[in-house]
Model the fold of this input.
Amino acid sequence: MPQKKRLRLVPATKVKKDMTVLTQTPDFEGPLIKGEAGNGREWLCGACSKPLMVDLEPGQVTDVILRCTCGVYNDGTI
Done:
């Protein structure tokens, strides 16, 4: 099993109306997006470090905003 690599997302400065926004709710414990890469990468909220995406390769996600339970909007483009 690969060692976890924790990467921080950048808080979004602008949310365009044509972008997809995925919102993490307080009763949902898991990440918003889970891939199948099996690489151990965790993409974390830029403010509170909660995992928002796991097991994804760079380039797999574009034009998505991830709203964490802490209220911060993160640029999900990796």
